[in-house]
Structure formats: C-alpha cells, structure tokens
Amino acid sequence: MTESYEERRIAPRADLENTLFIKSITSSQVAGFSNDLKTCNTINVSAHGLQVTLDFEVLVESEIALWINHETGDERILISGIVRWTSKTPNENKYLIGIELDESCVDDMTQWMDTPPSAY
Questions:
Q1: Domain contains 85
Q2: What does the pLDDT look like over 79-103, one tens digit per residue?
Q3: Nearest by Cα to 67 from 8, 26, 108
Q4: Considering the domain boundaries, does residue 10 fall inside one?
Q5: Into how many domains does the chain fold?
Q6: Residue 26 lies in a domain
Q7: 43-81: burial string, b at 16+ Cβ within 10 Å, e else
Q8: DSSP readout, 31-51?
C-alpha cells in the first residue's frame, strides 16, 4: 500500500496565498518554457513543499523552478523542486499541483514563511 501525502510530510503546512513567478518547467516530454510570463498561486506551503494552482497542466515528475519576490522588492528567491502530483480542479480549467522542493531550498522557504513576500 502506498503512503498518503499527508503521512509523507516532514514539515507542517501553513495556509499562504501568494503569486509566484514560474522560471522554468522541464520534464521528459516537455523541455524549457515559453517566454510568456507564467504564474502560479500558492494554496499552502511548508519548508519542504508547496501546493499551488496553475492555469495549465504539467506532468508528474516535472522539474519546476519558481521565483518568490520579497515585500521590499529588493530580493528574489529561486526555489526548485519536483511535481509529485497533479489534479484538475472542478472549475475554471485550473490544475492543483503538489511540489516537493529540493533540500537546498529549506532555509529560503523557512525565511519566506517567517516573512511573507509580495508578488508585486
């Protein structure tokens, strides 16, 4: 039997709604990303993962890199991880995805959660 996502979590989640800018998405079937500015909206976050909504579908196991802007506007944080699951929402052609972040992002995510950034 497979372990549920809730049981696999190693850090508590916090509800945090914000807009992040997508730098790139790479998978075995899709490489790179168009020059169009793409965003995603966070639903909840932890030091090790994110749950976000997108206006387009991505494949499970895709690598994704995201920019977070701090409120001061002076600093951006680049985080990256792997899409672990995806689900189409019942409305508005949106997709809910779960991202497991790279271990190197933990300190930056902890800082971001302690000082929520602004997307603008």
A1: yes
A2: 999 999 999 988 778 999 999 999 9
A3: 108
A4: yes
A5: 1
A6: yes
A7: bebbbbbbbbbbeeebeeebbbbbebbeeeeeeebebbb
A8: -S--SS--EEEEEEEETTEEE
pTM: predicted TM-score of the whole model, two decimal places = 0.76
CATH value at residue 14: 2.40.10.220
User: HEC profile for 57-85?
Assistant: CCCCCCEEEEEEECCCCCCEEEEEEEEEE
Tokens standing for residue 15: 């509800």
Give the CA count within 13 Å in the CB-facing half-sphere of 60. 5
| pLDDT tens column, 42-81 | 999 888 999 999 988 888 999 999 888 766 567 788 899 9
Decide if 119 is inside a domain.
no
The pLDDT value given to residue 32: 47
Residue 51: how many CA atoms within 13 Å on its side-chain side? 13
